Structure formats: C-alpha cells, structure tokens
Fold this protein.
Amino acid sequence: MPQSRTAGLLAIYPHITSRDRLLLQLLDDHHVLTTDQIHRMLFHARRTCQIRLAELAALGLLDRFRFARDGGGSQPWHWTLGHNGHRFQAAAHNRPEPTARTSRHTVQRLSANPHLTHLLTANEFFVRLTAHARHHPEARLDRWWSETLTTKQYRTITADGHGLWSVADTTVGFFLEADTGTEPLTRVVTKLDRYAQLIRRGGPRYPVLFWLGSEQREEHLHRLLRGRPGDVPAATATHHNDPVDAVWLPVGATGRVRLAALPSDHGQPVADNPNYDAGVFVL
C-alpha cells in the first residue's frame, strides 16, 4: 500500500532541527532570503550554512533560484519554501495542504516578481538587526512583521515592515519604508499621510524609517519633508550603514542618532484594528 502524503511528510520530521523550523517560519513569513542573509542570522560558518541549505532542499523543504549577473557570473542563491516546506508550514498553522502545483507556482511567481529586489532590501534591514542581536546580548529584535502582516494589523498604512527593537530596557517601535530608487520622492512623502491618520485614530506614534540607496536621495527627501507638519516622526539613513548605529537623521534635526534613541510612542494599536495580535516573534 502506498504511503499517504501525510506519512511521507512525517518521515522527514527526524531530520528537522529547531533551527530548521525557525528558517521555515522565516521563509513562510518573509518569502525569500539569500544564502548570505540566512548565514548571518542563523549560522556561524558559511560552509555549514551552505551544506545545510542543500540538505533541506534535498528533503523538499526548501527551493532556490538565482539569476545571471550583468557582465557575467551569477547572483547569490535565493531561498524559499519548497513543496514539503509549504506542507509543513500549512500543518503548523492549520492551513489547507497545498498541492505540488500550487507550491511550484508560488516559487515561480516569487522568482518573476518585479518587486523582488525591494522585498530583499526590506528583509535585509531586519536581517542586519537580527545579526547584530546575535552578538550583543543586550539587544534583541522583538518583532519582525512583513508588509502583509503590517497591513493586516494596521489596515490603512502600507509599510514595508514593522518592528520592535530593544536595547536593555528601551524598546522602540518603527515602520520601515525601504527605498530602492524606483519611486519619485514626491510620492514617497505622501505615504506619511496614512501614518498621520493612524496616529489620529489612537494608533502607535512610531517613527517612519526611510532607508535610502544614496546620500543624494536622502538629502532630496529631507528638503521635501521639511515643509510638512511634524505630526509623524520620521528619520532617514542609507543602505550602506548599519541601521543599529547612530546613522538615523530625524526630520528637522541636525545630528544623527542610534535606532534605540528614536522617540517611540506605542499608543493604543487596538484602536485601529479590533483583531490586533500583540504576539511577538523573537529570533
């Protein structure tokens, strides 16, 4: 008698470690991570990371893709859930079991997504916070919400992510706007109107972090922001800086501060969404 699909998945369980389960959850939540990002978050040795990822792919838990680089060579591997990874996560969260065709199409849509670079940029921000916390016991990333979950919880805003960052006894909430230079900055500025609406409804007054690709774009954005009301706290930094450090320039300020030093008012987030989930995901 052939094994059922469930029995086939159960046979994989003895090979899945707690670190593997964390990785599966991260990919379920955030869709795609590169080899380097996974290494910095979860492994000490890069070679160990590469070997383990290949083993998980052989078990069908992960899938991967990469593209050619302009000028020769290949981009790094991009990792996502494989069919068994989708099945495992569906079972863990009481979702219907996906078919192999559904899993395959999910990977294909992700790999061809024109916003893939933007997604990886937003994920990179949180990867850097996670990697920093691994080596600094006083720091921790208490929450990493994707764009999808952030939009579900707060409804009217469309942030690229939301997090809670703690250092010792200080916790700062923030909304991330990861910029890849594809949008006019005048459109970027108008996003603050939705954050202002959230604050007026009693939601959290978290700083909006504009993470930009160049100093020139940062300077231009500040010129546009200076004429706006100060009801929404906002700060800027560029991609080549560590977001934990004193690299954030609040709008209207002259000096840069650390992420943990930004003002943060947690407000009453339940006022925006009666189904608000206060649960945190700790790495």
In short: The first strand starts at residue 33 and ends at 34. The mean pLDDT is 90.
